[in-house]
Amino acid sequence: MYAFDYHRPTSVKEAANLAGQAEDAKFLAGGHTLLPTMKLRLAGPASLIDLGQVAELRGIERSGDAITVGAMTKHAEVAGSADVRAAIPALAELAELIGDPHVRNRGTIGGSVANNDPAADYPAACLALNATIVTDKRRIAADDFFQGIFTTALDEGEIVTQVSFPIAAKAAYAKFRNPASRYALVGVFVAKHADGVRVAVTGAGSNGVFRVPEMEEALGRNFAPEALDGIAVPEDEMNSDIHADSAYRAHLVGVMARRAVEAAAARG
Amino acid sequence: MTATGIGAPVRRKEDQRFVTGQGRYVDDFNRPGQAFAYFLRSPHAHAAIRSIDTGPATIMPGVVAVLTGDNLAADGIGGLICGWMIHSKDGSPMKAGPHPALAQGKVRYVGDHVAVVIAETLAQAKDAAEAIVVDYEVLPAIVDTAEAAKASVQVHDVAPDNTVFNWHLGNREETEAAFARARHVTRIDLVNNRLVPNPIEPRAALGEYDPGTDTYTLYTTSQNPHVARLVLSAFIGVAPEHKLRVIAPDVGGGFGSKIFIYAEETVCVWAAKKVRRPVKWTSDRSEAFLADAHGRDHVTHAEMATDENGRIIGLRVHTTANLGAYLSTFASSVPTYLYAPLLSGQYDIPAIYCEVDAVYTNTAPVDAYRGAGRPEATFVVERLVEKTARELGQDPAEFRRRNYITQFPHQTPVIMTYDTGDYAASLDKALDLADYRNFQQRKQESARRGKLRGIGFSSYIEACGIAPSQAVGSLGAGVGLWESAEVRVNPTGSVEVLTGSHSHGQGHETTFAQLVSDRLGIPIDQVSIVHGDTDKVQFGMGTYGSRSGAVGMSAIAKALDKVIAKGKKVAAHVLEASEGDIEFKDGKFGVAGTDKALGFGEVALQAYIAHKFSGQDLEPGLKEGAFYDPTNFTFPAGVHICEVEIDPDTGVTRIDRWTAVDDFGVIINPMIVEGQVHGGIAQGVGQALLEGAVYDQGGQLVTASFNDYCMPRAIDLPSFQVGMTVTPCPSNPLGIKGCGEAGAIAAPPAVINAITDALGHEDIAMPATPQAVWRAAQKARMPMAAE
């Protein structure tokens, strides 16, 4: 790890000011991507702005037809939240499938969406649940937020403060874990809303998280696994690595989508 | 059996300190004035070094020294060695290329040692390493085992076709004749996947030099500190043997990878004198992936001949073994004498012929890893036996039974003389525990749920208790493989046992104490086991190859016999009886036929005060030593049965049941033995389903972290059904065979045989990842599945 300046603001405003002043600054949330990268000397930001003491970034709230999760809320808190379990059980289940207990008690939702790792779980939930990513400057629809591998709509110095999830009628997440890393090799989040079905896939796409309109239309007509028969995602848009080539990933998208629909439908 | 004697499931004495963080590992030692070493490693798989400019690094903050291979050469420090000479078929010696501790002119794998920076802090050493300017001429690399001998790339000048040796074993003519008259021949092509050992504690070394006494101390993560001292002094030449103390304190697992003498500890000792500061190096996990000796990596074609009665009459095997870029300490023995002599398995096979071509590649050195050659042999035999049974339409269990060796001793055509065993007894017990008779019912039930169920057998044998020194000497070993022990009885009757074995997870502090408690009749807490320090233990060969029970404890038993014999003499003087009338029983020395007796502690005290005898007729004191050289290998054997259920939609293999019935001979501590079986199976399942080191064609290690290299987790394993059969080993005084590697040897073929049974075809390689199994399942969807 290279030397760096360490800042620990207590408000979003202070954090944003620091980011404006410091050169080559990085926000530190749970640190589960940034710190290992720094330890391997693959990243060397001049300043770290640790958001861990910013109280306004934490907590989970249910208001009417949405669940709003503060950006610094840890995965374990989402997994264990009675509000989340009651309103969007699929979201709690997704949080419980991230990494291991160590990761779930450090990693945060804000860090996950801001990083937009192509194999992270939360981006699939955000897209399928039609979430709004709230920052210190604006509100961004999930459809506009995720823009490709490790790329988001965030401006330099912009801080994710909350993620707001509309409560879907039915939803489920089916994840096929990378056997080694436990990231999603393929993760499919299916959500049935009043105005239609949304299907989002993480881990598989060569350009990061994506929706599958063909599946959404079919499920809009008939929310059942067999509605997906014959629908395939294009292999040439899938990721390929030593764990899974594009053909296998494309196949798994179908399998996981059917399993997610089955689980969502079973919620009654 | 007493509560702490032989056969008692005594809780491990050492665990209190391990689980409360009180263990002391090499990295826990810090010496006054200590500096830190960081190795600059090659980013290229193969390159000539045109020049190294250390100048910019030497002026970086905190830098004490920057050293390269030139400095090593200038100081006359020799290269690392391979301690087992193998001769090719034509009689020529193996081609050992130079193996300097720091590169001299060339780097040969990613992670190879280019230079070392010694600095006040590790961070400063790393910063300075980035300032070293190395001018590489990058060369094409060869990584592929099967292609190495044909490659235009040449790893070492001494080996023009990258071939270390072409070796063979067995009776070639008889084997050819057997195949000529065979009714059926079964053929198989196998890859034994390369593994990264990954003990939980990475390697570490701390070298220290005392200019006042001109002595050196090395703290190191070693399974065999005396061998490390011998190699560092007599061969590499960093310090004279009598001036070098090697300490291997608590060591967090080795699995073979800490047997070897590596560049890093060599450099730490040498540099400590050069900079007159203690020098510490601790591997990080990334370095461990790159530069610990890897395991396995064989490509094999094998054929099995059977006659009209379904009896195996011949086996021929051709294996190409990848030894990596350099010959590690025992690399040459693993694919030869630790491999081919096990190819008879548990079967009466009159003719066996095996050829092994060992090759260099631009990859990390490959050496012994849990099982070392024996898992590779067992994989060949048990995959081939299973396939043969299937091709002959026979029940795989009964096919095995028909071919089992039943008469002992049994001489195989590949060196080994099996001393004892009852293979059918293990099979019967395993079939019973596995509920084999109802397997078809379970298979149908799985099919109703759209799942493919399969069952796989592994009827393994291994050669442990290595080894008779004369025998291994005749096969090319540079050392003898006996063990030493010293039993020191204190005046208060407590006992210290100094052993040349080394515990790095095996539980010696408990099992060895159990033997002493059992033999001397003293409480187990009156016994201390001392190991891992060349200043305390006179000499020892260390721990590997499941040898510490069979060989190390036999040495202790021999020393205990001497202690008891001396105790009888002392008791005879004190009790004023004739020595021949003294009996030692239940911890008491008594005069036969009387109630006159002395407790063990009383005799110990009398031995030290020596009031009742003169030093002329009996020496004071009670301390005895012994060297034990085994008369034969030991042959643990057993039957493992794995039952899997495959999800054909995803390719996920779930191990539903695991039955292990092992014959380890006499068992000292059944709880520790069962733990060894569990751990071994976990590693074997890791090889079969999860683990595989992958280099890309350029020689970069793709699986260089746990993000890509999949270690087995508890969730990957079922609860194991473990049973035992016992045929005491006749070749050592305790009847012990050894248990440390059995699971890792037995497991891989059991898993793959189960998967191929479920799939209905043989075409699946290790690791059988979900992707690989899905693809294989696509090929042959079972007709009964999910229709």
Automatic annotation (TrEMBL), chain A:
PROSITE patterns: FAD_PCMH. Coiled coil: none annotated. The keyword Flavoprotein applies. This is Carbon monoxide dehydrogenase. Keywords: FAD, Flavoprotein, Oxidoreductase. Pfam families: FAD_binding_5 (PF00941). GO terms for molecular function: FAD binding; oxidoreductase activity. Residues 1-170 form the FAD-binding PCMH-type domain. Transmembrane segments: none annotated. The keyword Lipoprotein does not apply.
From TrEMBL, chain B:
Signal peptide: none annotated. Keywords: Molybdenum, Oxidoreductase. This is Molybdopterin-dependent oxidoreductase. It comes from the Bacteria. Gene3D superfamilies: Aldehyde oxidase/xanthine dehydrogenase, a/b hammerhead, Aldehyde oxidase/xanthine dehydrogenase, molybdopterin binding domain. Residues 20-140 form the Aldehyde oxidase/xanthine dehydrogenase a/b hammerhead domain. GO terms for molecular function: iron ion binding; oxidoreductase activity. Pfam families: Ald_Xan_dh_C, MoCoBD_1, MoCoBD_2. The keyword Oxidoreductase applies. The keyword Oxidoreductase applies.
